[in-house]
Amino acid sequence: MHACFSPRPTGRFMRLFMTVLVLAGLALPLEPGQALAAKVDTRAFSAFFSGQSAKIYDHLLKVTDYYTSLVKEGNTERIKDVLALRASLSACWEIFLNAGDMIFVYNQLDTACPADVDRMGGLIHTGLGIIAGKLDKELEWMGLTEKNVGDLPVSVELTQARRDIAAAATYFRQAAKLFPEAGSGGQTRQPVSP
Predict the structure, then answer these.
(1) What gap in Å lies between CA 152 and CA 66, rounded to an integer?
(2) Burial of 27 from C-beta contacts in 10 A (0-12 / 13-18 / 19+)
(3) How many CA atoms lie within 13 A of 21 on its CB side?
(4) 3-class SS at 25?
(5) Integer angstrom CA distances of residue 93 from 30, 99, 186
(6) Is 150 within 8 Å of 87 (Cβ atoms)?
């Protein structure tokens, strides 16, 4: 009798071979001069963003509902004031979402591409400051609207919305400091707590 020999490797041997191959690939050093990028921990930002996002969107929905009720009542003289408030809240919502989009893209970057991580970090540093400034401008517009809706039930929503949007602008300015400025060699990577 002769032993049965198959030229094809067995399943166990192939799994072992593939595991060794993968581990060897992970152990290979990077190209000379290439290092993994240190990324900013964005978990605190994401938690804050999620909470504020829900609040700001809720304010927008409540003002929209109030606007709809005025339309149904036929109250044409007050509609324009509430419409202005709704437009300002909608603008804040759109501006606010840009901050989340930037952090989402940043989190998708591969740490093996340090130049991309640094460039995106610089863009976020600048972008969060710009977003905070745009939110401040919208708060100024809301201030003008406030006197026109002060006697309406929606004024309570306006006060709360202004407080939440101001908190977001302040937090974005703080979070921007976590990311190095574009083209700077220094890196600041401390977490910001909400």
Answers:
(1) 10
(2) exposed
(3) 6
(4) helix
(5) 42, 10, 33
(6) no
162, two tokens: 């202004």
Q: For residue 29, what are the contacts with CB-CB under 8 A and spacing of at least 6?
A: none
Inter-residue contact 51 to 43 (CB < 8 Å): no
Q: Within the chain, what is the greatest distance between any pair of CA atoms? A: 103
What is the rounded (10 degree) CA torsion for 143, 147, 151, 155? 0
pLDDT score of 21: 41
Instruction: Give the model's confidence band at 27: pLDDT under 50 very low, under 70 low, under 90 confident, else very high.
Output: very low
Are 84 and 40 in contact by the 8 Å Cβ rule? The answer is no
Average pLDDT of the residues in 160-169: 97
**Residues whose CB falls within 8 Å of the CB of residue 89, separated by 6 or more in sequence, listed in order:** 56, 59, 60, 63, 142, 161
Helices (H), the chain: 11-27, 43-73, 76-108, 114-149, 154-176
Structure tokens belonging to residue 139: 């708060």
Sequence-separated (6 or more) residues with CB below 8 Å from residue 91: 138
Angle between helix 76-108 and 43-73 (nearest 10): 160
Are 135 and 165 in contact by the 8 Å Cβ rule? The answer is yes
Give the length of the chain.
194
Supply 64's token pair.
Answer: 């929209």
Give the pLDDT confidence score for residue 12 in this predicted structure.
59
